[in-house]
Design brief:
The protein is an alpha+beta fold and 458 residues long. It has 3 domains: 214 residues, Rossmann fold (3-Layer(aba) Sandwich), CATH 3.40.50; 77 residues, Nuclear Transport Factor 2, Chain: A; 64 residues, Nuclear Transport Factor 2, Chain: A. The strands form 5 sheets. Strands 5, 6, 7, 8, 9, 10, 11, 14, 15 and 18 form a 10-stranded mixed β-sheet that branches. Strands 21-23-24-25-22 form a 5-stranded mixed β-sheet. Helix 5 crosses helix 6 and helix 10 packs across helix 11. It is globular and about 80 Å long. The two termini are 39 Å apart.
Length: 458
């Protein structure tokens, strides 16, 4: 199918259709956000000094590349300090505005761009329930969760249409970035041209209606839900939100304002069908306005009395031997781990928020972040744990030289001079005073312990 034919059905709802078509055929600009769960923003930007960057005016942690680069091979990407993400894809979480210590659901989570963005807004606190029905896609999701250092997540895998049966009136905020016909992804890939069709649009709309109803029922009174898609089809956008409004009088659409970012209102007429006038408060993002992919976003609240979780902290399980070994080896104050749950799972120690540890209502496939594994009287900490908790180490750390850095992150061994403060065994490797990885020192050389799947390509 030709691009012109696919999008011709939207001529009546896009006044500047010629401009739309001009931009929809262009490749996307490269964009990403810095991950402040791993390091401070200015520290990450220091590692990106070789790139020409421009900050996004609407989102403090978002950037675009002025000059094309292989960003996926950059050390900051492999270390989880940045997440490559399309500009419009960042907007749903900006609109959701999750806060620390809240209970949040990401209903359709893979591959994890918005999941990790939510956790960053929550400052790695509270409880973030992350759902992905497809187990294969869930593995990619978990890879990104770990890469970005999340410890407030509980990953589940069930049909999104069932969540309300298990957890009614439960979540403070919910994101439904719904599976869709993906018309807006054409600037990234032409794949949509080969599977697009009206039958597929209708099939996706039926799935989306089940998801939005289930999500709304799982939202607690006073809570906020964001529904988003990367498609233009009104059947999957305003039509789905209209379906929710018809069924639930307590549902209310909230206006969306994004400073320094142009948005357009939702539509109320489509092919002879008249939608609720409140749908104007929905948001359409078109490529010609901000040079992004197309997106649709609706912000919905559930009217009613908010039920505050009084003094809810969850059970704190504290497996102290891992912390003790970590302290003895690296000198990190055990108080640094106060308030977290540390527990064993299949021979590995994990760390999470107590809310995550106490989440039992649904079987999880992952909780929290790997702390490390104990071998006799020694602990091998996890690489991602080191980046989150290793900055206060005062012994057994090594500031790697710039000429050694790439080689080490490729999994190779580097020679180092014997020096005080470093004994044989596992060592925290730092760069520009940031902990980046674990190495093993034998008295002469530092062997890289960076896992194969996280190494920088040769």
């Amino acid at each position: 199918m030709k691009i012109e034919k696919l999008y011709s059905r939207y001529k009546t709802i896009i006044s500047d259709f010629h401009d739309f078509m001009e931009f929809i055929k262009r490749p996307l600009v490269q964009s990403f956000r810095v991950n402040t769960l791993k390091a401070k923003k200015n520290e990450i930007l220091l590692l990106l000094k070789d790139l020409e960057l421009k900050s996004l005016p609407f989102y403090n942690n978002g950037f675009l590349l002025q000059k094309k680069s292989s960003l996926g091979n950059h050390i900051t990407h492999n270390l989880g300090m940045i997440y490559i993400q399309e500009i419009a894809s960042m907007i749903p979480v900006v609109v959701l505005d999750p806060k620390p210590d809240e209970v949040v659901l990401d209903l359709c989570a893979a591959p994890g761009s918005k999941t990790t963005q939510i956790a960053q807004s929550m400052e790695n606190s509270g409880l973030l329930v992350v759902n992905e029905i497809n187990r294969k896609r869930a593995q990619g999701l978990i890879h990104n969760i770990k890469r970005c250092g999340l410890l407030n997540e509980a990953v589940i895998s069930l049909r999104g249409q069932r969540i309300d049966k298990i957890l009614p009136d439960y979540f403070d905020r919910i994101l439904i970035d719904a599976p869709c016909s993906a018309e807006g992804t054409i600037r990234k890939s032409k794949a949509v041209l080969y599977h697009w069709g009206l039958k597929n649009i209708q099939r996706m709309a039926n799935i989306q209606k089940g998801l939005i109803v289930s999500g709304f029922r799982a939202l607690q009174p006073g809570g906020t839900m964001v529904y988003s898609t990367c498609t233009l089809a009104p059947e999957e956008n305003e039509g789905v939100v209209a379906y929710l409004l018809d069924r639930f009088p307590e549902a209310e659409i909230m206006p969306i304002i994004i400073p320094n970012f142009k948005i357009r209102p939702g539509i109320t007429k489509w092919q002879g069908e008249i939608f609720d006038k409140r749908l104007k408060s929905c948001t359409r993002i078109l490529p010609q306005d901000n040079d992004t992919a197309p997106f649709f976003i609706a912000k919905i609240i559930k009217r009613g009395m908010y039920k505050r979780r009084i003094d809810y902290m969850g059970k704190i399980e504290f497996e102290g031997s891992a912390v003790e070994h970590f302290y003895r080896r690296f000198g990190v104050d055990p108080k640094r781990f106060k308030g977290y749950s540390i527990f064993q799972n299949k021979g590995m120690s994990f760390i999470s928020t107590p809310q995550v540890y106490s989440f039992w209502e649904i079987k999880t496939i992952r909780k929290g972040l790997e702390f490390g594994k104990i071998y006799g009287q020694e602990i091998k900490p996890d690489n991602d744990l080191i980046q989150v908790f290793g900055k206060k180490a005062n012994r057994n750390y090594y500031e790697i030289k710039e000429y050694q850095l790439k080689k080490f992150l490729q999994g190779e061994t580097v020679k180092i001079d014997s020096r005080p403060g470093i004994s044989k065994g596992f060592v925290i490797v730092t760069y520009k005073k940031m902990p980046i990885a674990i190495g093993k020192y034998n008295g002469k050389e530092m062997k890289s312990e960076v896992k194969r799947e996280r190494r920088i390509p040769l």
